[in-house]
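Sequence, structure tokens passed on for absentees:
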Amino acid sequence: MVHQPSAPDVGNGTEIEGDNMERQIVFENAGQKLYGMLHLPDRVDRPPAVALFHGFTGTKIEPHRIFVKMARELMSNGIAAL
């Protein structure tokens, strides 16, 4: 049986730095869930996007919040980050 992934569940989000938005997002397929944070820049129609993945034993934060800082910097430069 082929499982089609469902559309991601996107939370309401939190505005930071003007109209920039961070929101939790969940992809689900075959009963498995993949959680992430979507960082959307303000006032950008269809922004370019980057997907960030931590290593197998890593976390979304990593030492010194490197992924959070990188995603926010991308967002502040008009690039969406997941």
Notes: Residues 66-76 form the longest helix (11 residues).
